Amino acid sequence: MERVIRTIPASVDRFQPANTKAFAKRRVAGYARVSTDKDDQFSSYEAQVDYYTKYIKSRSDWEFIEVYTDEGITGTSTKFREGFKRMIEDAISGKIDLIVTKSVSRFARNTVDSLTTIRKLKEKNIECYFEKENIWTFDSKGELLITIMSSLAQEESRSISENVTWGHRKRFADGKASIAFSTFLGYDKGPNGEFVVNEKQAEIVKEIYSMFLKGMANSRIASTLTKRGIPTPGGEKNWAGSTVASILQNEKYIGDALLQKFFTVDYLTRKVKRNEGEIPQYYVKNNHEAIISRDVFDLVQAEMARRKGKSGRYSNLKTFSSKIVCSQCGEYFTRKVWHSTSKYRSYVWQCGGKYKKGKPRCSTGHFKDDLIKDMFIIAINRLIASEPADVNEVLQSSIFNVSNLEKQCVQKRNKIEKLSDSLNNLIQKNALFVQNQSEYDEHYTALVSEFEKTKKELSSLEERIKDKKLRKVIVKEFLKNLNRISEPIEKFDETLLVTLVDHIVVNEKKEFKFVFKDNSTITV
Fold this sequence. Notes:
Blueprint: E1 26-34, H1 39-57, E2 62-71, H2 82-92, E3 98-101, H3 104-107, H4 111-123, E4 127-130, E5 135-136, H5 142-173, E6 187-189, E7 195-197, H6 199-213, H7 218-227, H8 241-249, E8 257-259, E9 262-266, E10 271-274, E11 282-284, H9 294-309, E12 324-326, E13 333-338, E14 346-351, H10 369-385, H11 391-395, H12 403-432, H13 437-482, H14 494-500, E15 501-506, E16 512-516, E17 521-523
Parallel strand pairs: 1-2, 1-3, 3-4, 12-15
Antiparallel strand pairs: 4-5, 6-7, 8-11, 9-10, 13-14, 15-16, 16-17
């Protein structure tokens, strides 16, 4: 039997939505975007909106829906383009048949985003028209042309991004610091972009440092500032402990600037990452007027390290919070309420690790506030009864001298440079000339081992120098505060506790060992 083929004509025009008649007007929307919010681009934005409104309305076969817009938004991703996303949602929901825009680059500079969106629209019989390139997406050549044009636009974005990145890095290498002045507490932007101290805000910064050195935790400082109605650097009402911490650690308050703390990983996603050595950083000393002295800044960094290094979470809600340490387990003592619901209600201090699971129960006892206050008064009076130290003489002591360590650092740096040159020469020689590979590997391994060893030695020396300098600052501040006490004290003074005592160690015999900030000790 002979095969018979019969053609069944198409009953739906694929260029029209299936639920409309062929002669119905096409519902048309325009899309306008400029990639910056600068004034010189605003006229272009306004012009695009006006042009597409008039252009769509001038066609008798088109029905004007809306001109969707995004102003000051980049085109490398559709993620944050609210106008674009709203337009696509309206189109998918059946409100639009045709989208008209200036060019492929206005639509998206990301090839994947561009093609994904266009294919999604085509599935719903929605066409796009790119006027500059004269591309209709229902045309058989449309997708190929869009792929090419989107790739070119994406390459342009990459080139622009690299140029901008190069400009930033060149500025950093030249030591030119800049910050978001509108969200940075303490400085205003000068006429030439320089740092100008905002005296009113600078007082708040100084107070934050002062509160911290008086023993207040970051969360308590934040709570205090919030209650006083002082706005955050970003203009918000509520402060967070993390905001306080960032102010306490920012080198710009001592007049310095660490440049390139963060960098952009991918120009398409615009993902930003903290610089952990992937690219160079630049430290500019004395870049601008300081708000905080270097000694105060160093004291704060030392205190932050001390709080972080102690066992348990730092707190200062009570006078002796995070000050009293158990001699057996190293945990902080915490204040507990005894007989909370009776007339015998009282507060006692006991080791916070005493009842922790998985830890042996320590035998240190408990005591009340008054006892530790009495012990403190005795310790301070014993301290000031001893012969007063000459501040200058103490600070000139050999224990703070770093000149020999600095000489050793220079020697280590020179050695590292020579080892690096030797490694590069060895690798280059092996690439150019035939060599015994086992001998090469042995020589290479020996050089790398020596290089890493010297780097560790240099790091250790630098840490010792840093520690000595910091100890000198701490001792200087301690002696300054101690020398202000001219006669024995009779009452407990919390300020003296914070400024003079590093911590107090208590043992099972209820012996109180006061460790002062110069590392001297008195046991009561």
